[in-house]
Amino acid sequence: MRSNIFIISLLFFASTCFADPDFEGTYRCAGFDPYINKDYSGTVHIVRYNTVYNLLMEYDTGEVARGTAGLWDSATLAVVFQDLKNLQNIGLERYSFSKDRKRIQGYWVYLGKDKLGKEVCEKQKESSTRIVSPSPSLPASPSREGKKQ
Angle 68-72-73 (CA atoms, 0-180°, nearest 5)? Predict the structure, then answer.
């Protein structure tokens, strides 16, 4: 009996330790852009699509970017992104979860540049499905489709 309880407890503990992180959601962000020397705000939508996360990043500076994250662990998400209005603006961002997992903090840089931007994003309660396409050339899919099963 005790060995059964021990085995069940061990399996439960192991499954929670190695569970995939859930970065999916809509986040309201505030940050600082060192390239224009200005604070900004915006929204980041993160959707799981097969084995990667897709991001749609919309900011009050007028920038709209798409990102893909294929590398993550339980606390961090590495994103490559491209500005859809200026395709030469390609960058890298690393998001980290807060301890309570309600916020992500990101540091970002444009390829070939020497300044580091920063943003903090708070996860919003889901009120509607946001459409995020895996790439600008592919049709959009609802955020709950394509989710890893």
Answer: 165
Categorise residue 2: left if φ over 0, alpha if ψ from -120 to 50, beta otherwise. Answer: alpha
Q: Tens place of pLDDT for every residue, the chain, 149 residues?
A: 555 444 444 343 433 344 566 899 999 999 999 999 999 999 999 999 998 999 999 999 999 999 999 999 989 999 999 999 999 999 999 999 999 989 999 999 999 999 999 999 999 987 544 545 555 444 444 333 344 43
Do 148 and 20 form a contact (C-beta atoms < 8 A)?
yes
Rounded to whole angstroms, the Cα distance separating 134 from 138 reads 7
Is the domain 21-126 a CATH 3.30.1360.70 member? no
- Pairing between β-strand 141-142 and β-strand 131-132 as defined by DSSP bridges: antiparallel
DSSP designation for 9:
H
Enter the pTM of the model. Answer: 0.73
For the chain, the domains span: 21-126
